[in-house]
Design brief:
The protein has 156 residues and is α+β, with helices and mostly antiparallel strands.
Length: 156
């Protein structure tokens, strides 16, 4: 986990300052991930069980039936299908196990690799932030919004 956090190419479009994170920060994140009431974080591993990245459902709102999706992958995992596998797994879990109605996320247009990935896999773009998005997120300018329902997954 610390490897991708300290990789400038991986974190350059992320809002948080991951390059300042320490091993202790990673361990604290892993411990906090045991509580899945508000967020769900799953590790993505390769065929040798080596950690390659994390997929997440953040800010799960069970009342509204939605959550924000997030993904980050180590550079070594990119282009190997692991991101698609992890994303599909957590989205299916969001609907089947967590009983959510919608999962949304956003990406900055300059993050061309991510935009290509989401578009290639057929995830539907939104004209604006979904209504369930917190105001501080929805008000961000110049970002591309995506949102999926369980029905959308069958088309992706």
């Amino acid at each position: 986990m610390l490897a991708w956090m300290h990789d400038a190419d991986v974190v350059r479009f992320m809002q948080a300052n991951f390059q300042s994170k320490t091993l202790e920060d990673c361990e604290a994140f892993i411990r906090a991930s045991e509580d899945t009431t508000k967020s769900l974080h799953l590790a993505v591993a390769d065929d040798h069980d080596e950690y390659m990245g994390t997929v997440s459902l953040k800010d799960i709102n069970r009342e509204l039936g939605c959550a924000e999706f997030a993904i980050t992958m180590r550079k070594e995992a990119m282009g190997k299908g692991l991101a698609a596998f992890g994303m599909d797994a957590i989205l299916r879990r969001a609907f089947a196990d967590e009983h959510l109605k919608m999962v949304y996320w956003y990406v900055r247009p300059e993050n061309a690799r991510a935009v290509r990935f989401y578009d290639k896999h057929g995830y539907p773009r939104q004209d604006a932030a979904p209504a369930v998005v917190p105001a501080e997120l929805a008000g961000q300018a110049g970002i591309i919004w995506y949102a999926v329902t369980e029905e959308d997954l069958h088309e992706c």
